[in-house]
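Hey everyone, long-time lurker, first post.

I ran two proteins through the pipeline my lab uses and got sequence/structure pairs for each. Pasting them in order. The first:
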Amino acid sequence: MSGIPVIETRPADEIRAFQEQKLRELLHYVQQHSRFYQNLFQANGIDVGSIKTIGDLARIPVTTKDDLYKFNKDFICVEPEKIIDYITTSGTLGDPVTFVMTDKDLDRLTYNERISLACADGSSHDIYQLMTTMDRRFMAGMAYFLGIRQMGAGVVRVGNGMPEFQWDTIKRLQPTIAIAVPSFMIKLIEFAELNGIDYKNSSIKKVVCIGEPIRNDDFSYNTLGKRITDAWPVKLYSTYASTEMATAFTECGAGRGGHHHPELVIMEFLDETNKPVRPGEPGELTVTTLGVEGMPLIRFKTGDICVAHTEACSCGRTTARLSPILGRKQQMIKFKGTTLYPPALYDILNHTPYIKNYIVEVYTNDIDTDEILIHIGVTETPPNFEKELKDHFRAKLRVAPAIKTDSPEAIQKRQMPEMSRKPITFIDRRQK
């Protein structure tokens, strides 16, 4: 178990005691420095000295994305001269929010990514090809770079897109691990096949997958994961993270969910009424950040629905693991009496030949219910393509959305508007 933080191998009661000590330190800190939490505690008659256990956290109201948007500056706990880096969220489901990081926060971010990449079987002997941006106020690219640097591994900062440049870099520098959005790996495969590149025998042996799911609920590869690994014998590692918690949940080699780092966040899984779900049931991941100086959060609702797995892992860690994200609470669709999350649609689209790219658009119809229109990028279609695709949707989901075809180039422009940091595959035009 070399390289695994000691706390991540301890019994559950010891991890809980460790977190409760860190929680008391956090509450004292925000009581002194956070205008938002000072106001929240006062409005709800909360004496932070009485919050001593993780169970006691339930007495504190949750923090939402709307709170971050409305009271953004009130969350900042430090003077401007202590701020080293300014970051914004991606704004996938609304307006972006600014986060600030101190020197201490950058150290925490570095630690998080170092142990996360080590969890994904990385070491100082590897060379990482970073296929994501480090600019545009993006936290992830910088986190990867800092973590790799502290690990002592090599890093090649290529950025996103540019398949030709990616392959030229792989040929020249022989990186062993890629960090990339998994759908981009499909584009790399297609480019290699069109240009006679022997990608199956390239130096890349592992891929840390960001931004899109590669596994089903049972941890088997989903359609996207299978499309990559059926063509290219690489090992995929799923990772889940967000700017708000500045923490990643990354798979180990067992591929059984993203490991929790208890020294960085406290986890809760809540239902629609903000009550804890029963063990093994899906709930909204809600986090309390530990060790954050600039903008700590208490009981922040991520909007992501998942399941906690607590059985022992073969890697030696005793920490809980996150299931694949089942969906985002804000993205839940009620379509013709069926509840859907976009990943269920994505899995079918990724499995369908001829489809190069797509965008799922949801809007409110004239009777105030949800409608789905899928914009599909295709270069050619066989006879009865639309009918067969709709039949496939009905077979898998019991309902079939509307479909509109366009050129892959037109869809790509909509997926990557100016200043976008990752592909947009979901557009929500519903009346709120």
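...and the second, right after it:
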Amino acid sequence: MYKIKPEDKAFVEEFKKCPIGHHSPGLQRILNLFRGEATAGKYVLVCTTPHKQWALGVLSGIRGEPIRMTGEVFESLIDAEWYVFQRRWAKYTGEELTK
């Protein structure tokens, strides 16, 4: 499993500028780590209004159990993706990213 290194922080700005679409190999390595984690406690985005609103949820890791919604709601998919990236970065590095 890939371990985030101090020099990987250079990819944070790349993600912030373009969270959706093609990414450099370095950023893709980080995203594969984040997105491939175990399902228990994993953040997910739930589209609540098509193309207009997304809500943050957390998976239980138990098949069939509903997603626990956090109450965080976003009007932009870009903002929602950035929020999840920040949470996952903090989980793996212990470092909070600022906006």
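Reply from user beta_strand_b:
Welcome! Quick read of the second one: Residues 40 and 61 are 4 Å apart (CA to CA). The first strand starts at residue 43 and ends at 49.
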